From TrEMBL:
<protein>
    <submittedName>
        <fullName>3-oxoadipate enol-lactonase</fullName>
    </submittedName>
</protein>
<dbReference type="InterPro" id="IPR000073">
    <property type="entry name" value="AB_hydrolase_1"/>
</dbReference>
<dbReference type="Pfam" id="PF12697">
    <property type="entry name" value="Abhydrolase_6"/>
</dbReference>
<feature type="domain" description="AB hydrolase-1">
    <location>
        <begin position="316"/>
        <end position="544"/>
    </location>
</feature>
<dbReference type="InterPro" id="IPR029058">
    <property type="entry name" value="AB_hydrolase_fold"/>
</dbReference>
<dbReference type="InterPro" id="IPR050471">
    <property type="entry name" value="AB_hydrolase"/>
</dbReference>
């Protein structure tokens, strides 16, 4: 039977450790690493002391079963640290304890911190009491626990702002020499700590008797919420204060061998630009989705996300992102590789537009992004963008959907099947042939003739696509029809198309449904002398087309 518990870690950075390095390491590497093992750690939080005592920082992780902390997959995380983690943790005084859950009671309106937005969770207060019971009194723990459960928690629940109280005891893991009871109580930002209800809970005859007869030592600490972990790194704020450099780290031997995280801090035109390249893993089927988060380092900065086309990577947005960093330094920028760019889980499953939209929803959850300021997608990413706006209207403020059709056709479905045959030919090396054919079809004649570097780079990008990933992701475009729903769209949108996409055929197709999108129709912007990927072929012209809307 599982024994839920708590991993409780108190930390004090040594004076010579830069504060930014300490926080960036813990927020981007150490904490998210643990939450990637969701079957062990469903959540994780950092707190900062409010009582002027040391250690100043506390990390708390709920554990589904404390026995899992003795398994190899977890102990390998500690045994195979990255060089950066080893160098940083050596400059931190750490006390690590494991506790088993004894009792829990919460307010009826209580919501776990991990389910709240960062704004709603901010200011949550934590009161912790570490109580060591007397070794020479056999009933000490039982009497203390009985008082706690039958009187104390009930009185604490009357304190304004009380959210939840939990009582833990030292876990047998690690063979502790003494029994410690840990009470952890959460309060809202506005609360009655120190008020009459709280004072009453601290002064009863039963409490006085139990304290005198059962308690050997007791320490009370108070904290305020500092950071909520997700299963993927997102802290640009502390990264921005590190020296200009880049570092890569993996998550130990327990994590996927081919998945690493890279953090960079560069200086452009006198401004610092932090960036994180990492991945999230979907809960539905274990797909690893790579992403890059960069731009404005404030966690409160408006976020614009980009969804790439089939066969391309998140780097297809590179030219536009460079413009955004200069023109819109207020934005945080998120890009990710859509399903099918890389290897797919076993057994593979055909993608649908609903699946692709759900993937983005999971990316946002992992990065704790409640709502996008804008979403921009092209081709399959354009269809995904519209599908996302229809399915998750509360998560996006506006969208730009480019070079796509609102419905598939039988002829288009057969074309994708034919392309799969080309890609899979000669043991999968046919993807290079498909790349040349595809890019030639995508680009405007002026791009093909005058921008050889852009053409070659895109051909290489397409040729690097995972063949099986392509086979299963392109099926999202086989049989879909968004037209019956587009009139319901409540999210403001802009449609964009390259003038020469499909030799002008896609311009006519998008004109055909633009008027039906949303209650009053949607404007269609045409980018001159570009084809299927106008943001790659002429980023400046594309920016001019979307600047006012974004």
């Amino acid at each position: 039977m599982a024994t839920p518990g708590l991993l409780y870690v108190k930390m004090q950075p040594k004076p010579d450790l830069p504060e930014a390095q300490f926080h960036e390491w813990y927020n981007n590497e150490h904490g998210p690493t643990r939450l990637r093992f969701a079957h062990i750690f469903p959540n994780g939080f950092r707190y900062r002391a409010t009582d002027n005592k040391e250690p100043t920082y506390l990390a708390v992780y709920d554990v589904t079963d404390t026995a899992l902390l003795e398994t190899k997959e977890y102990t390998d995380l500690r045994a195979h640290r990255s060089a950066h983690e080893a160098a940083t943790i050596g400059q931190v005084d750490v006390r690590r304890d494991i506790y088993d859950l004894v009792h829990e009671r919460s307010n009826e309106a209580f919501r776990p911190l991990e389910s709240l937005t960062d704004a709603d969770a901010e200011g949550t207060q934590l009161v912790v009491n570490e109580t060591t019971v007397k070794n020479d009194y056999r009933q000490a723990e039982e009497e203390y626990t009985t008082w706690y459960e039958e009187e104390h928690v009930d009185m604490l629940s009357r304190v304004p702002g009380w959210l939840r109280t939990r009582l833990f005891r030292t876990s047998p893991i690690g063979n502790p020499s003494r029994t410690t009871l840990l009470s952890v109580t959460e309060y809202a930002r506005e609360n009655g700590l120190g008020g009459p209800e709280h004072k009453a809970a601290m002064d009863t005859p039963w409490r006085t008797k139990v304290t005198a007869g059962c308690v050997d030592a007791k320490e009370r600490r108070t904290y305020s919420l500092f950071y909520v972990f997700g299963p993927a790194p997102r802290d640009l704020a502390h990264l921005a204060h590190l020296p200009s450099s880049g570092r890569a780290f993996s998550y130990g031997v327990a994590g996927p061998r081919d998945e690493t995280t890279t953090t960079t801090t560069t200086t452009l035109a006198g401004d610092r630009h932090p960036g994180i390249s990492s991945y999230i893993t979907t809960k539905s089927d274990g797909l690893n989705i790579r992403y890059r988060l960069e731009g404005n380092p404030s966690p409160a900065a408006p976020t614009v996300a980009f969804c790439n086309s089939l066969l391309t990577s998140l780097h297809m947005w590179d030219p536009l992102v460079q413009i955004l960093k200069t023109e819109r330094p207020d934005l945080r920028i998120l890009r990710y590789d859509a399903r099918g760019r890389h290897a797919v889980p076993k057994p593979p499953r055909p993608a649908t537009l609903d699946v692709l939209a759900a993937d983005l929803d999971e990316v946002l959850d992992a990065l704790r992004i409640e709502r996008l300021d804008a979403l921009v997608g092209v081709s399959m990413g354009g269809a995904t963008t519209l599908s996302f706006a229809l399915r998750y209207p509360g998560r996006v403020g506006r969208f730009v959907a480019c070079d796509f059709n609102a419905a598939s056709s039988a002829a288009n479905t057969q074309a994708w099947k034919d392309r799969i045959e080309v890609a899979e030919a000669d043991g999968g090396t046919g993807i290079k042939t498909l790349a040349t054919q595809t890019v030639g079809r995508w680009f405007h004649p002026s791009t093909v003739e005058g921008k050889e570097t852009l053409v070659n780079l895109m051909t290489e990008m397409v040729a690097a696509n995972d063949v099986e990933g392509f086979r299963y992701s392109c099926q999202a475009l086989w049989d879909y029809d968004l037209k019956p729903r587009i009139g319901e769209c409540s999210v403001p949108g802009l449609l964009v198309v390259g003038e020469g996409d499909g030799k002008g055929a896609l311009v006519k197709a998008m004109q055909g449904f633009a008027g039906a999108l949303g209650a009053e129709g949607t404007r269609l912007a045409i980018v001159p002398e570009t084809g299927h990927l106008p943001m790659w072929e002429d980023a400046d012209a594309f920016w001019e087309a979307v600047r006012e809307f974004l």
